Amino acid sequence: MKLFRRREVEQSAALALLVGAIMGPAASAVTQRDASYAIAAGASAAALSFVVLSRRWLRRYWLLRSEIDPAVRATLERRVSFYRKLEPEKKLEFERNVRCFLAEHTIAGPKQREVSLETKVLVAASAAVLLFGREDLDLPSRIDIVVYPEAFTDEYEVKRKGEILGQAHAQGPVILSERALVEGFARAGDGQNVGIHEFAHMLDLEGARFDGTPSGMDGHAARSWASLVHNEIARIGRHKSILRQYGATNEAEFFAVASEAFFERPSAMKEKHPDLYRALCEFYGQDPAA
Description:
Layout: H1 6-31, H2 35-53, H3 55-63, H4 70-79, H5 81-84, H6 88-104, E1 106-108, H7 117-131, E2 144-148, E3 166-168, E4 174-177, H8 178-186, H9 194-204, E5 205-206, E6 209-210, H10 219-237, H11 251-264, H12 266-272, H13 274-284
Parallel strand pairs: 1-2, 2-4
Antiparallel strand pairs: 3-4, 5-6
C-alpha cells in the first residue's frame, strides 16, 4: 500500500486547477473585481480543492510522522506470525499499513461498542497481509468493520455455535467474529483466517458485486484466471484439493478461500496447486513459500 499514489495525486491536482480556473473568473464577475482578484480567488479555490481531494494522502503523511503506539507493535510481535518473520525494514512497512488502516477505517462492536486495541490490530493486520506485496493495491477508502464477540446467525444473533464467522458487504460493513479472528492468527498454518478471507472479498469487489476475479486484471489475465478457477473448483469437488470445501461455493468464495491458503499454507499450495500458486503470487506480489 502506497503512502501516496502519484497518479491519483496528479489527478487531484488537475481537478483542483480546473476548479480554480472556473471559480476565479466567476468570483471576479460576481464581485466585479479586476483580474488580480480573479487570480487570487482561483488560486485559493484550487488550493482548497486540492486539500479536500488529497485528504487521504495528507492524513497518511502526517500520521506516519509520529511514532507507532508501542502496544500496536507488541500485539503484532506477539500475535501475527507473518509480521514476526519479516526483516526489520519490512516490519516498518507492515506497521505503516496497519497504522493507516486503523486511522482510516472504523472498527467497533455491534451498536458501536468499543473493542480492544488488540482486536483492532488483528483486524488491520488481516488487511495488511494482503496489501503487503503491492504498493498499487489498496482497499476502498473507508470500510466499517463490525466485530461480533462470537459467530452469528443470518439474523445477526450472536451465538457461540452460530454458522457465520464473517461477512463482507458491497454496500455495507465487513463483519467478523472476534473469536474466529483471534483463533485464525493463533492457528496460523491451518488455512483459515476470517480476516484474510473477508478482506480478500473486498479486493474482489467490482462495482457492487463480488465476481471472484481480483480487481485490476486485464482481459487476458481475467480469462486465464476464470479457466484456472473452473479447474480448481472441480478439484475441490473431487476432494483432490488442499482448499477447504467452502471454496467450491462460487467463484467469489473460491478467491477468498484460496487467498487464505496462499498465506497460511503456501508450501502445500505451491506443491499441490502450482498454477494457482503462481497466479496468486503475481496478483499479491508475494511469494510466501519462499
